[in-house]
Amino acid sequence: MIEDQTLAGINSELFKLERELQDSSDVVSACREELLAAKRAYDQRRAKVYLDTKGTVAEREAKVTIECADEIAALDVATAAFEYAKAHAAGLRDSLSALQTRSANIRKEIDLAR
Predict the structure, then answer these.
(1) Residue 86 contacts by C-beta under 8 Å, 6 or more apart in sequence?
(2) CA angle, 29 as apex, 28 and 35 as ends, to 5°?
(3) What DSSP state is assigned to residue 15?
(4) Any alpha helices (H) in 1-114, and if so which ranges?
(5) pTM of the model
(6) How many Cα atoms occupy the beta-carbon half-sphere of 94 within 13 Å?
(7) Which of 30, 38, 81, 88 is deepest in the core (most CB within 10 A)?
(8) Is the separation of the CB atoms in 39 and 75 below 8 Å?
(9) What's the pLDDT tens digit per position in 4-63?
């Protein structure tokens, strides 16, 4: 919650949140690209290991799990980063919306007081 509940204070906070939201959109895009790259790397490595392995399906899948541990970990990290970035952006949008509503309410109060 912002301390300065005047229109000037709210407008200042709105500008700040708008900048943060733009920055967070850039972060979400970058995280999405990293997630897609990690998924491609895992898919390619998985396919290669699977095709190079002999045995039953279960044996091949086990070999993939062991051999692709680094790619799986990278994919997990990229997924977590993307989900966090999206949630952070959503939180900023919610805060921005709440401040916009508060600003509109204050303007209405000022208009009614005239």
Answers:
(1) 28
(2) 85
(3) H
(4) 7-52, 57-67, 69-113
(5) 0.78
(6) 7
(7) 38
(8) yes
(9) 677 788 888 888 999 999 999 999 999 999 999 999 999 999 999 999 999 999 999 999
Cα-Cα end-to-end distance for the chain = 28
| pLDDT tens, residue by residue, 96-112 | 998 888 888 888 888 88
Tokens, residue 22: 């733009």
| Residue of 69, 31, 73 whose CA lies nearest to 49 | 69
Distance of alpha carbon 81 from alpha carbon 29, whole angstroms = 11
Residue 110: both structure tokens together: 């000022």
Which residue bears the tokens 């899948």?
61
